[in-house]
Sequence to fold (237 residues):
Amino acid sequence: MALLGDAALAMWWDMAPAMRAEFEDWHTHEHFPERLSIPGFRRATRWASADGGPGFFVLYEPAGYDVLTSPAYLARLNAPTPWSAKLMPHHANMVRSQARVVASRGGAAARHALSVRLSAAPGHEHVLHAALCEVVETLPSRPGIAGAHLLQTDTPAIAATAEQRIRGLADRAADTIVVVCGYEEAALRRIADIELGAGARASAGAADDAMVALHSLSVAMLPLDLGERTRRTPLRA
Fold:
């Protein structure tokens, strides 16, 4: 399995340009290290919108689904740092999906990533999943492509956390998620138009509510990357 566990936490949000520099500083130097210090978190990756827009895509790879409801993780969600509390309200249009890994092939971090959020038309769930599993199996061997991964959201029944309350609105969740990673943007764009394009999705039994986005790698981090870290002070407002 290419992803480092059998579960994933996939998130998308927009960050206003005025907050972007501080957000990336915080997210890289405080937030990722904080999350990766939680037992069971194996990798964290952040991509920015490939077109320079405000969107970000973040993928966490826990060892297992139970990590997403572990006491250590919930403790962090309910005790955000002052810097986190400052930045959380600026996460706009948040989509946060706690998911199980259905299929995963090839690399999980590359220069570019294509994310497709979709759901099945009524009665077509099995057909859609079978079609997407085939896509995930075949894409990683293509020139320009490094890996492909299929996730299915399975939201745990836990109370709203302090971080969610700071953001102010209930987080939305995707249903089915495909992530394709590659070293050539053009190859990912072709996949977005053909194998995962509107016609292919409809033929596979998907509803017409898909969200497709192309991202460029900002940072990828493992627990082993942390080492001894210097304490950071947030930028002044």
In short: The longest strand covers residues 92-106. The longest helix spans residues 17-36.
